[in-house]
Amino acid sequence: MNGLIKNNLKLFFKTKYLLFSFLLFIAIINIFLAAEFYNYLIHEDILYYLGESQRLGIVYFVFFVFISYEYCVKNKNDNLLESISVTSNGKFFFYISKLITLVIIILIMTLNIMIYNYAVYFLKEINLWSFVKHIFLNNLLNIFLVSLTGICIGTMAALKLKRFKAYFLIILLTILISPIIEFVPYILFMGFGINIYPLMNILDILPPNLNWVSESLYGLSIEPYRWNLIIFWICLLSSAILLNVSSKKIKLINYISYILVILSIYNFYSYMNSGSIVKKDYNPINFTAFDELYYSNEVQREEKANFTIDSYDMKIKIDRQLKNYVTITLNETDVLKGYKFTLYRNYDIKEILDKDNNPLEFKRHGDYIDVYNPADEKLETIQIEYSGYSPVFYSNLQGVLLPGCFPYYPIEGYRRMYLKEQSSYIPIIRDYTVKFNISVESALDIYSNLKNEGKRYYGEAQAATLMGGFINEKKYEDVTFYGLSLEELPKENNLLRIDEILNQYKSVLFKDQYTNFKDMKIFQSTITLSSKLTDNGIVSFQDHILTYDLSEECLVQGFAQKNIPYDVNKLKVKKEFFDYILHKERFINISKSELENNMIYKFRRLFLEKINELGEDYVIKKTYYYLTDENDTRDSELFIRNLN
Amino acid sequence: MKSKKVFSYLTLAVALLLCFSVNVYGASANAILLATESSTVSSAIGLSTYSDYSALNSKDSAYSVYANVQCAFPGKSWKQVESTLMAAPGIANGTNYATENANWRLELNPWGWGFIGCSANGIISYD
């Protein structure tokens, strides 16, 4: 067999057109990687470099599908196969040795990309073992296994089809696998309501999201469903190849083929149960469209609960998706017939029980749950078991992004959670604290605003934030900062001078409510949080803050917002208020023509008019009272027009 | 003849100066999608750590239109940051931030590839 492989390797490199294609392929790959390496010296973003290198997956696929076809079909034409087939199992060994030869070439070419990726990693001088593993897994999945699938397709085509049909099939498959076909299921769904995404996705073996800014907490997509899909194809095709090239007499090979079929079925089943994934295409069940389409209709409600919550006891398990068993201790003043909760709609409730484990009747309508009390006494405790995921706020084996302002556990009352015109989630923050006792079962190290003992998180807070992935913990005197390991912030030193920074704004933004920031926790917002949450991901709780940057402005806004109840109707004023205080020079120096003609500044114009008319101090003071006054329910426009 | 040349150079210099003076405190770019176009991208507005955008899909549009905010960091290619589907009629607006300076642009794209028949406009800017 070894000799056969050596001969096959020689044959590969002696065949002029194969050798020429191979050299051309190497040249293209290395020119691309070197050019990106040069760009890396400018941006120094290792995750971006990894993403760009994984784009080559499609090039590898196309190359290996064609090369394997040509390589396998070559000897068919040379009549070599006929003579080999005469010998015992000759055809089988002949093809297997060819496949091994091709796998050796894939290995070399995968190593080629990995060398660049690891060179960039070492140049960056970050000590992050999980990212070393991430580079390896990405290359294994997106380059090695994608190429292997290509080889299986090329070999099957060589075994079964004539050149014209084979080339037709190969070109068709290449088109179906590549991202250019994405528009077909999209148009069918949006235009005619026909959903062929599940069918098309079966061929979706290439890495997704490469046209989007990378999610630094998460890395590139290597969720289990992608491995399942690609292993499904490889097992299915290789079993077909084995059955085609082996003689019926070799039972072992037949058994291996059947095992491969079983493996492929198992992987297909696992693929179908993908759970939480991050895929930023326009599939109606994914990141971009899932909530966008749902909240386009008037499905949101707002209603205060007539009870409060004393404590949550949660047993969270995060693998492919989130599973939670939560016991909620209620604080009811009267006996209630119904209890209203908000829980993100894609978490499926298995059951709801009372304190004696008796099932409680409930009604689910979107994000809202009504739990009915059958007895004439207070419920005191409700137990809810549910599982599921959000396509945006992910929770799986690769990353956990569960900010406390997102209802991944039941929140009392009906709450509005999406702002359509900004495609943003509205942070849900209660104005009192509750006790949390959470145990989290996850393969990742999870960081939280709560106190932590091993896998247990506990304490009293408004909400529980859980984050895991490429994140690390740093102490800056009294402040704990959870930063993204792959996206270092330039102004981390500001955390050492928070008091000094906040003092400059004390008279305007903090007044009597100047809060103590001791034991404060600050989480760096990911791109998902900063683009998908209103206020650009600056969310403030009493004990922790989420912010995309540690600039003075972001820190001030983060701390100041703690005293400002969240009200979606006041968003416009809030933006102008903070922009005026924190970026005053920029704010007032905007050119007159821009201010008058640019529709972006329509509300700013009103705000500036009031400042010019009534004076800065007065407008700022009044605006601050308006923002902090929960009872003032006027919207931004009404407030600014009424200001006098 | 010579004075005419000097005058034209002076005019050019003043025009350039005006262009730059507009950019001292910011820049903006419009994206206008005509009913005959299947997509449009604004010009890039230059380096900034943030950008405001606002877009409007008119009531005469045949379809919904995506307002896509894209950014490119030095050395990197254009990447999508945000994508909002505007009904007809519908609006989208917001601000996007980056921790380093990036170039920004706004793309208006009817929801179907190659679809025409939508009138929309948008602006992306920083001040």
UniProtKB/TrEMBL annotation, chain A:
<protein>
    <submittedName>
        <fullName>ABC transporter permease</fullName>
    </submittedName>
</protein>
<feature type="transmembrane region" description="Helical">
    <location>
        <begin position="225"/>
        <end position="245"/>
    </location>
</feature>
<feature type="transmembrane region" description="Helical">
    <location>
        <begin position="166"/>
        <end position="189"/>
    </location>
</feature>
<feature type="transmembrane region" description="Helical">
    <location>
        <begin position="135"/>
        <end position="159"/>
    </location>
</feature>
<keyword id="KW-0812">Transmembrane</keyword>
<feature type="transmembrane region" description="Helical">
    <location>
        <begin position="252"/>
        <end position="272"/>
    </location>
</feature>
<feature type="transmembrane region" description="Helical">
    <location>
        <begin position="92"/>
        <end position="115"/>
    </location>
</feature>
<keyword id="KW-0472">Membrane</keyword>
<feature type="transmembrane region" description="Helical">
    <location>
        <begin position="55"/>
        <end position="72"/>
    </location>
</feature>
<keyword id="KW-1133">Transmembrane helix</keyword>
<feature type="transmembrane region" description="Helical">
    <location>
        <begin position="17"/>
        <end position="35"/>
    </location>
</feature>
Automatic annotation (TrEMBL), chain B:
<keyword id="KW-0732">Signal</keyword>
<protein>
    <submittedName>
        <fullName>Uncharacterized protein</fullName>
    </submittedName>
</protein>
<feature type="signal peptide">
    <location>
        <begin position="1"/>
        <end position="26"/>
    </location>
</feature>
